[in-house]
Please model this.
Amino acid sequence: MTTTEKLPSRSENFSEWYNQLVLKAELADYAPVRGCMVVRPYGWTLWENIQQALDRRFKETGHVNAAFPLLIPMSFLEKEKEHVEGFSPELAVVTIGGGEKLEEPLVVRPTSETIIGYMYSKWIKSYRDLPVLINQWGNVVRWEMRTRLFLRTLEFYWQEGHTAHATAQEAQEETLRMLNVYADFAINDAAVPVVRGQKSEREKFAGAVHSYTIEAMMGDTRALQAGTSHFLGQNFAKAFGIQFLDWNNELQYAWTTSWGLSTRFIGAIIMTHGDDQGLILPPKLAPIQVIIVPIFKSDAEQGPVMEAVERIRKELGAFRVKVDDRAEVTPGFKFNDWEMRGVPLRIEIGPKDVAQNTVALARRDLPGKAGKSFVPQEGLAARVAETLETIQNSLFERALAFRKANTYDPQDYAELIEVVQKGWALSWWCESDECEARVKEDSKATTRCIPFDEPDGEGKCIVCGKPAHRKVYFARAY
Amino acid sequence: MTTTEKLPSRSENFSEWYNQLVLKAELADYAPVRGCMVVRPYGWTLWENIQQALDRRFKETGHVNAAFPLLIPMSFLEKEKEHVEGFSPELAVVTIGGGEKLEEPLVVRPTSETIIGYMYSKWIKSYRDLPVLINQWGNVVRWEMRTRLFLRTLEFYWQEGHTAHATAQEAQEETLRMLNVYADFAINDAAVPVVRGQKSEREKFAGAVHSYTIEAMMGDTRALQAGTSHFLGQNFAKAFGIQFLDWNNELQYAWTTSWGLSTRFIGAIIMTHGDDQGLILPPKLAPIQVIIVPIFKSDAEQGPVMEAVERIRKELGAFRVKVDDRAEVTPGFKFNDWEMRGVPLRIEIGPKDVAQNTVALARRDLPGKAGKSFVPQEGLAARVAETLETIQNSLFERALAFRKANTYDPQDYAELIEVVQKGWALSWWCESDECEARVKEDSKATTRCIPFDEPDGEGKCIVCGKPAHRKVYFARAY
Model:
């Protein structure tokens, strides 16, 4: 671990700050294949913690996991017209298997609606088989042109839920239930405030009737789509023949949903909380919650300090704790190193602390002296629990305040185009594709979502002035 | 769930029994791509339990997880001569990406030594960076011609550990440490007795110096390679330039290992423990450990029975318990259904049990009355814990006795060829490729391993009569 080079400044060069930080914190690395990434152990442990937080919620809402094949016959994708149009340009195609040219090329799954739809058509016969509530954790490949670690890579990791229901209402409820699961996770575990809302026709999933999203504001005020949930209507059921005998013994098409959250979310965490010193990880998801740094200058000091360190490490067994006992670097180097890696809480223990039965606590979310306190060793576990909770809440509040401070209510089109250069705009919109396209052309901002928590009403479209009934967020996005 | 058709008899048609059972128990299904499988929720939950049991052991031995790319440049495989020869015939090759022909084809990983070796060469600079102890959970693709669900599929799921060390001795120790982790898991969690040993030159991993294996005897006496661990020497370090500065500041090549265990192990569990009624799952890994079947004939009976069922379900909260409250099928149907699915323990609760504060317990591993007992509701949780442990142990002992009963010590070559038709042979072998090849040609039996627990000595090769120093297991294998 050599972390002597300084990070680029976050405020001056957000993009380069992000790229360097991902590498320096050893979250991920570039793979030898263009656009692919290696998720390193520190990054993968963060992802495992995200997986656990989500998987628990999936199981609480009645879902089970399964695994569907990586390779999908090309003809499957062609069965749903919008779906194939959306994904065709992004496919990786296997044409050779076992040394021979394949009769039908196989695509490496970009998403699994088609192959899962095919299997559901085999498994579902009666209303008694419904609902089917399956999730899959896995990898998918989309041949993206402009890639960035975590945010957009050729291969990425995600979960994709695929459910089938007897009625449209049930499927619609499921779609929103899972969007709420994502929001709950983002807010309570990742400390990432998100806006829940509906995607426009232009921005929705290829093959969906309606798409819903959680959108988060990054530290440079850009938006990031952090999770999506789709009501697929009967589109895939009709394409793949997912039919069941209903209560009246009549054959019906099922109603399906799909929903996904990916390793992209790691990008959201980095860009929501990080600062010039590096990462700041929310305590609930941090691979290491508490780093203990022993401080001593002589062999005589080392013994008692390490004894206290070991005792305290054991007392903090309920947390994810690591002791940095490297001999080859200084305590100051260690402070910087773990700050860069975003560990929420640091405990320093030196000879004075041993003598006074105290430790120094340093909060990662508050710089320098503001985050530092000297506390008794007695009752430390309770204090650590409390402090981690304070950090968790404070990260959320800070990010929420940032989003509010950078969300605008422009009064006319010119102001809209101006404010989306520095934040989000929440404006009336007539919901026409033309107005959406014009904003994008003039400003690179897209519609992010029609938020649930804004009441419908009567307004004038910020673009064309025609009557509008709902507000939408416009923003530049990742 | 319709499970009315009877399974083929295990003793009469083991192969068809296996195929049907995997489908009927809803462990897996055939995918629309030849040779690929869908792992259904019941099978995947079993795999998740296997993953947890292994992952805990990996972390206890200092390993961390990470994720490396699915797609590997074709040229990477060509860097290690034996490796490419071993895997070339089995590759799935991506030749088109984003609508364009790729300059260099990418192979879908059949295993990850090459791409991980490449990354290690970037990360490892000094002896301080060693050892690197990384594991990956994921999917791989090998273009197999003859496939069977779980046992051999084009895509399968596994973990692959890849470690790098400063000395040959450390790497060799790691190789055996992980083989022992596999054996510990197989014996103690899966109740699958395994023989640990070394693979022959002919049977070893393509690119390894030495390969080690755990071999299990299936219910038809065939052998199944259930997990392997490879000492790779400096082969991949030299192919990919994994070099480090040692304590004397001299540049050295690292020593590497790899080790893997796959969804194939599910096949081993099925074929080790199952019987004519279906699966028998070891309690420690079973997705459902206890199935509760309420029994009542009238509405008047239903209330008190369901009340007792619900109370008992809560009391058994420490176990993986399911209540089968389906109204559309009879208790008898449910008994058969859950027996077929291998749930280790059944609890029946009827009106008499309610009146007498008892329940009926039925062990899956003992047929009919032998496995049935009527026990008080009081202290049920302790009794369930005890019974599950008894079942776990009894499954192991039974399988071990079966292996011993079907392992032979043939006195000459003719007898060797005869006994490998009905079991394993443990015989002196001169370790020549010719003798190994001759046995295979004459009997389809291969060498499974040179077992650790047989002492070296002086014997005569069972094939050629020349001096031999070690014994080997010969067996037909999956």
